[in-house]
Amino acid sequence: MRDARWPRQHVWRKAIWQAMGNVGLTGMHVLPVHKSWVDFAHYPMAIRGLPAGLEGRRIIQISDLHCSPMVRASYLWQFMDWINELQPAVVVVTGDLFMGGRRYAHQLAHMLARLKTSHGVLCILGNHDYGLNGKAMADRGGRRVAHLQSVLVEHDIQLLRNQSWRMRGTDGKGLSFVGLDDEWSGRMRPDEAFASVDALDPVVCLVHNPAMCLQLLHYPWQWMLTGHTHGRQMAQGPVGKRLFPGSYRRFTHGLYTINGRHLYVNRGLSYGQRHQHWCRPEITVFDLRAAAK
Ligand SMILES: [Fe+2]
Q: How many independent structural domains does the chain possess?
């Protein structure tokens, strides 16, 4: 639980964060972050048909690292140690892993290799992994991502591109993680990804953009973990929707329940585009639970 003194302790951080955010300068924030400024959000992850032996196992989600000249490795490194203290079974990284030159792919992989898990580290791609504007950089973005993939593989880190990965229980049954490629790149192929899943497995779907949630409802996932928004909600109110219709996002941060499924939107670790002081860097901690049928 958050310390009740938290708001008072962080008055000056909130003031700096909000002042810089208001003028679009949150990306200039290069101060090391005190651990208590990080939002460790804890949730039970109830799964129907959870394989035996996985109860209580910990899945940690981080997102939107944007490892680049703007989001420095020295800032991101500290999170790896804090994640290790939580003893995760699996760490999932839901896209926007790096920006800038290819050397940042090496920095990122080196950093993620520091994570200590019992089962593994799973990554998916976000729009910025293909380039600054993922929509318009199909060819060059494809080469960039292939480079990232080879570097991650060298470090024993999985990059799921329309693929699944299975966490096995003691009864031999599995919990499947389905990782989709980025939608903006035109490479998202859910049919292909879900075809690789055992029909009896419960599924956690990893996709960068939560806007995809509704059109993916006909696939058999129970939980969907996403990022992309950095928590921003500029156009959430009635006035905002009118002023910034193009910026309206239905799913901006936190947990949503849709037709009995669970969507989680992580606010990410990098510091760009955070327009509210509560948009602190987030590490989400899910503890697996067997759900009632
Ligand atoms: Fe992002």
A: 1
Is 176 within the bounds of a domain? Answer: yes
Q: What is the pTM of this model?
A: 0.87
Gap from CA of 97 to ligand 1 centroid (Å) = 8
Comparing C-alpha atoms, which of 148, 154, 88 is closest to residue 124? 148
Residue list, CB under 5 A from ion ligand 1? 64, 96
* φ, ψ at 79 (rounded to 5°): -65, -30
Does residue 13 sit within a domain?
Answer: no
> Residues 141-151: pLDDT tens digits?
888 999 999 99
Q: Which two tokens stand for residue 171?
A: 């009864």
CATH number at 241 reads 3.60.21.10
Instruction: Please give the distance, rounded to the nearest whole angstrom, from the Cα atom of residue 64 to the centre of ligand 1.
Output: 4
Tokens of 14: 């909130």
The residues facing 289 across adjacent strands are: 46
Is 160 among the domain residues? yes
Whole-number Å distance between alpha carbons of 109 and 289: 30
